[in-house]
Design brief:
By secondary structure, the chain is an alpha/beta fold. The chain has six helices and eight strands.
């Protein structure tokens, strides 16, 4: 009897930095070594790495950026708030463009679940930094997370993998099995 889960067509969007890619503003990665993420890899789940900031045209390295006044991604999307880098340059357009690129990718792959880097002005799902570059956190979402959630995609941070796994199991149960070629 096969004890391995049946592969499904479930695809998960994952921040590239969590998968070890050096795409963060400082040129580093923030690899997530959580056993659930490794289990998903071992089970053959399709993980699609993304970096919204690179997709929006920003390079590596780049100046750190935060959403001004602790506003969230939704306010950036509506033009009511700005993403500023540490030199007070408005980089909102790159963040919005990156979010749109990631949403388009998610829609192409019919993605309904994302694991994104907590705290990021793009990817934060439970918190971001307050815009003062002082390390203060505020409960809010990043630009990409806000856009993905608006489109019905469930977004979790790397510190919420147990909750994400519950959603994944439901999606796997509801998804048709993949066909072997």
């Amino acid at each position: 009897m096969n004890t391995h889960p049946t592969p499904t067509s479930v695809t998960i969007l994952v921040s590239a930095c969590l998968l070890g890619q050096p795409v963060r503003y400082d040129g580093r990665a923030k690899r997530c070594a959580h056993p659930l993420l490794q289990r998903w890899v071992d089970e053959g789940l399709r993980l699609v790495p993304v970096c919204p900031e690179l997709a929006g045209g920003l390079g590596v390295p780049r100046a750190p950026a935060e959403i001004a006044r602790g506003a969230g991604g939704q306010q950036v999307l509506t033009g009511a708030a700005q993403v500023l880098d540490a030199q007070a340059q408005d980089v909102s357009a790159a963040f919005v463009t990156g979010a749109q690129q990631v949403l388009a990718l998610a829609q192409r792959h019919q993605i309904r679940l994302a694991i994104l880097k907590q705290g990021s002005p793009s990817c934060g799902s439970a918190y971001i930094y307050d815009g003062s570059f002082s390390g203060q956190k505020v409960p809010n979402t990043g630009v990409t997370t806000a856009l993905l959630q608006q489109a019905g995609i469930q977004v979790f941070g790397e510190d919420q993998l147990a909750a994400a796994d519950l959603v994944l199991r439901r999606l796997q149960r509801d998804a048709p099995p993949t066909r072997n070629a």
